[in-house]
Specification:
This protein is an alpha/beta fold and 447 residues long. The chain folds into three domains: 4-87, SRP54, nucleotide-binding domain (Four Helix Bundle (Hemerythrin (Met), subunit A), Up-down Bundle), CATH 1.20.120.140; 103-303, 3-Layer(aba) Sandwich (Rossmann fold), CATH 3.40.50.300; 311-430, Orthogonal Bundle (434 Repressor (Amino-terminal Domain)), CATH 1.10.260. Helices cover 57% and strands 9% of the residues. It has helices spanning 4-19, 25-41, 46-60, 63-66, 71-87, 115-128, 145-155, 168-181, 199-212, 227-240, 257-266, 287-294, 300-310, 313-325, 330-342, 346-352, 356-359, 367-378, 382-386, 393-403, 407-430; strands spanning 103-109, 133-137, 160-161, 186-190, 216-222, 244-248, 270-274, 282-284. It has an eight-stranded mixed sheet, with helices on both faces. Strand 6 (244-248), helix 11 (257-266) and strand 7 (270-274) form a beta-alpha-beta unit. Helix 2 (25-41) runs antiparallel to helix 3 (46-60) and helix 6 (115-128) runs parallel beside helix 7. It is flat, with a radius of gyration of 25 Å. It starts with a helix and ends in a 17-residue tail after the last helix.
Length: 447
């Protein structure tokens, strides 16, 4: 999970502060030393760490904190505010559009950072907003780069313009004319990268920028490369004056140094965070929400947005009615799993629930179990899925064979399912008269 190690360190530091009734200046300085070490271990730029810690310390040893009734919480509030400042300005819009279409976005970055996939992810987001994007294959060097763009474009049903091995600038110009004729109001140029920054690549990008005049230049960097990502961002910004950064593979970066350093070093905001391999695994980067996640306070707004995009309201209401009456069937469970999977990784979802990240630390959320359970349910007959009471030994044997599982696995799943139903029934009784509060039952994929 992104920022996992940093989040754990911060929560331990803050737990110590909250246990103290009053804080002395020495207490604050000791906590700030720990914060400094935590940030350095998270691969945050040294100059950024120094400035951040000094800003927090200066505010935290003031009268408003030391004389407060809840000094520990006041320090956390200051750390949160300074972290938001560090990562970005909330006034920055993720994407802006030209007054007269088409709007041209130029995607740049090193090879292997996830530029082509990110290009498709951005196109998918824009399509959802009612735009008509066109993807342009300007990478003529990397083997199968054009084919990859065509494949991801096909997955989101967005057209791809390509001219084979022609000069990238000529491809870009022809694509713009093609887009104007075909009503494409957004044109996204997927330019070539290299394994490292070189003069030839930069000259080509500078030439495209000078002739095409893109509305925004977006740099794609791999979060897992830490300070290298920040150095890359600084160099590209010096050469091209980028408008923002897209951080990829943030789900695989447990430290988070790049996310915390990019804005401070380059002065350019992080626009998007890619948190998975699916073309829907992209989020607009909100500095306040990310700071909240890092400090273990969750990210309810993003969770609500993901749920509203992925979960059908009518189905959710019907599911709630079934919960209350304990009429939950295997069909319902399968549907619920599929809706949850649309929202992304279970670990990420848990991290967005305030306080849940720390509570779930020792609970293993095994996403492979979801696939096993799905196979078991799909191996049942329609009657068995509707009515779990039909289960007997011969039916269970058939389900085990059909799903490729052991009998013990099938028995355990059915038992957990029945226990969940009982808990729902008990909870629905307890919740009468407590409108608006919801409980949580033990899902079979948690161990």
């Amino acid at each position: 999970m992104a920022f996992e190690s940093l989040s754990d360190r911060f929560q331990n530091i803050f737990a110590g502060l909250k246990r103290k009734g009053k804080l002395s200046e020495a207490d604050v300085k000791a906590a700030m030393r720990e914060v400094k070490m935590a940030l350095l271990e998270a691969d945050v730029n040294f100059k950024v760490v120094k400035q951040f810690v000094n800003s927090v310390r200066e505010r935290a040893v003031g009268v408003e904190v030391l004389d407060s009734l809840t000094p520990g919480q006041q320090v956390i509030k200051i750390v949160n505010e300074e972290m938001v400042k560090l990562m970005g300005d909330e006034s920055d819009e993720a994407l802006t559009f030209a007054k007269e279409p088409p709007t041209i976005y130029m995607m740049v970055g090193l090879q292997g950072a996830g530029k082509t996939t990110s290009t498709a992810k951005i196109a998918g987001l824009l399509k959802k907003k009612g735009k008509k994007p066109l993807l342009v294959a300007c990478d003529i060097y990397r083997p199968a780069a054009i084919k990859q763009l065509q494949v991801v474009g096909g997955q989101i049903d967005v057209p791809v313009f390509e001219m084979g091995q022609n000069k990238p600038l000529d491809i870009a110009k022809a694509a713009i004319e093609h887009g104007k004729k075909n009503g494409n109001d957004v044109i996204i140029l997927d330019t070539a990268g290299r394994l490292h920054i070189d003069e030839t690549m930069m000259d080509e990008l500078v030439e495209i920028k000078a002739n095409v005049n893109p509305h925004q230049i977006l740099l794609v960097v791999d979060a897992m490369t830490g300070q290298d990502a920040v150095n890359v961002a600084e160099t590209f910004n010096q050469q091209l004056e980028i408008d923002g950064v897209i951080l990829t593979k943030l789900d695989g970066d447990t430290r988070g140094g790049a996310a915390l350093s990019v804005k401070a070093v380059t002065g350019k905001p992080i626009k998007f965070a890619c948190v998975g391999e699916k073309l829907t695994d992209v989020e607009i980067f909100h500095a306040d929400r990310m700071a909240s996640r890092i400090l273990g306070m969750g990210d309810v707004l993003t969770l609500i947005e993901k749920a509203s995009e992925s979960i059908d309201e009518d189905k959710a209401r019907e599911m709630e009615r079934k919960f209350k009456k304990a009429e939950f069937s295997f069909d319902d469970f399968l549907e619920q799993m599929q809706q949850i999977k649309k929202m992304g990784s279970l670990n990420d979802i848990m991290g967005m629930i305030p306080g849940m990240g720390q509570q779930m630390k020792n609970v293993q959320v095994d996403e492979k179990e979801l696939a096993k359970m799905e196979a078991m349910i799909l191996s049942m007959t329609p009657a068995e899925r509707r009515n779990p009471d039909l289960m007997n030994l011969s039916r269970k044997k058939r389900i085990a064979a059909g799903s490729g599982n052991e009998m013990a696995t099938v028995n355990r799943f059915i038992k957990q399912f029945e226990q969940s139903k009982k808990m729902m029934k008990q909870m629905s009784g307890m919740m009468k008269g407590k409108k608006g509060k919801k409980g949580m039952f033990n899902m079979p994929f948690m161990k």
